[in-house]
Amino acid sequence: MGGMAAVAEINHFEYGWITPALSYTLSVLGSALGLVCAGRIRTAQTPGARAWWGLLAAWAIGGTAIWAMHFMAMLGFAVAGTRIRYDVPLTAASTVIAVVAVGIGLAIVGTGRLAAPRLLAGGVFTGAGVAAMHYTGMAAMRLDGSLSYDRLRVALSVLIAVVAATVALWLAMTVRRGLAIAASALVMGIAVNGMHFTGMSALSVHPHERTGEVTGAEVSGLLVPIVLAVVFGVVGLVYALLAAPTDDDRAGTAYLDARRDTEPVGAVTPEPAPDPVGLRARSTLGQPGTPFPSRRSTPPR
Question: Which of 99, 136, 207, 256 has its CA 20 to 30 A from that of 195?
């Protein structure tokens, strides 16, 4: 037709509602875990502990809520007349981009007082990183055709990514617990999926004549290691959150230490206050050599 290249038919939902439902579930799960981990950054007692929780939050949001969601949604992506394979190094690089972008964004907004310029800078950097992850993942596709993008929709997807990242960072620094975290995770899931499918709607595929076998890894070959990475990552995050001390643990430890410090010195060596549930050991888990300062000089009567 007048020298215009043909455009292949694209199906974003080859398996129906299953892939978008799973991708949304992953984005909500990762967002919820990331928000909880980010909350621990604010209460961490040492720089090392803050860095640890920042890393976990970056993995939860960048690795699970964003990248794993992207890959799950891509399972439902199909192009008529060609098989799709993936370049493994580029696919791995897209994972690193997502985690690093979120980690740096959290570092920008998490150091010092939260202010609008700091939040905007973190949101722009993280949003640009999320967009870079998406289009790097798209560049990793190998098929019998060339890709082209509608510039307006690409710009819209980047804008959505920046806005979503800014809101996510603000929530990470302000939301604390319960229903607020759940509601925020649901909203973040919508934003992440919105950015992905907006970017996908900008894509056109122009088929080529078959010149040989398409190189790269098939989706089936990547699915098992990615699913295992997500499962072990989520289990690790949950374990880290359950094993870490809570404010109640620290308060209990402070009370036990206060009792010990105020007991009359009548014996040769005063025994430590009872600790039947291991509060003292739990309160220092992951923070060796960092005692929690007691705010009480005397035990409650």
Answer: 207
